[in-house]
Amino acid sequence: MYKIQKFGGCVLLSGALLLSGCNSILYGKQYAVPQPSEPSATVRMKYDRDARLDAMTFNDKGCYAGYTTLPANGDYVESPVAAGKELILAYRSEVGGMQCQVPFSFTPEQGATYTVVNGSWSEPRKGYLSVISPDQHFCGVNVVKKIGDQERVESVQQLRIETGFACLKFVK
Predict the structure, then answer these.
(1) What pLDDT score was predicted for residue 61?
(2) What is the 3-state secondary structure (H, E, C) of the chain?
(3) Distance in angstroms (rounded) separating the CA atoms of residues 170 and 172
(4) pLDDT grade, residue 14 (50/70/90)?
(5) b/e per residue, 21-40, with b = 16+ CB within 10 A?
(6) From CA 92, how far away is CA 16, in angstroms rounded?
(7) What is residue 168's predicted lDDT score, i.e. its pLDDT?
(8) Overall pTM > 0.85
(9) What is the pLDDT at residue 9?
């Protein structure tokens, strides 16, 4: 009976650690949210239970080190981010039963609010494959920058993942 209680205690402790926010083991290096005294901007996205927005982190060599899923706050996913430094985000969702992932980057300006607007669409497939699968599904993002009353679509760089020996990089 002691062994079962000891094992059960270990399982309970492990579960408590995971649920208490000790998630760096699962997600890797977490994104460092700027302190109130540091220059910052805000990134937000309309909440959708099938979508998420992740801030990506990298080591000193520029290799992928982990991610932080930005938190939902009511109707929006919203978080402060460092201003003046390149920010790499990944929008992820499920569209038409298929997974959509769009990694992109931009450099936030201090005091600005950036709203990520996502969308998806389908187009008829052309050629021989149209018999098997009549539609192609696509997804994408735009980022709307707002400072004061001024709004404009921010230029973002869509990225792709480049694999290497023991190193994943996001390249333009």
Answers:
(1) 87
(2) CHHHHHHHHHHHHHHHHHHCCCCHHHHECCCCCCCCCCCEEEEEEECCCCEEEEEEEECCCCCEEEEEECCEECCEEEEEEECCCCEEEEEEEEECCEEEEEEEEECCCCCCEEEEEEEEEEEECCCHHHCCCCEEEEEEEEEEEEECCEEEEECCEECEEEEECCEEEEEC
(3) 7
(4) very low
(5) eeeeeeeeeebeebeeeeeb
(6) 27
(7) 74
(8) no
(9) 39
Residue listed under structure tokens 């709203």:
115
Structure tokens at 156: 């973002």
Provide the pairing of β-strand 40-46 with 113-124: parallel
Neighbouring CB atoms inside 10 A of 92's CB total 19
Q: Kindly report the backbone phi and psi dihedral angles of residue 94, in degrees, each rounded to the nearest multiple of 5, phi listed first.
A: -110, 125
Q: Contact at 8 Å (CB) between 69 and 23? A: no
Side chain identity, residue 6? K
Residue 30 C-beta-side C-alpha neighbours within 13 Å: 12
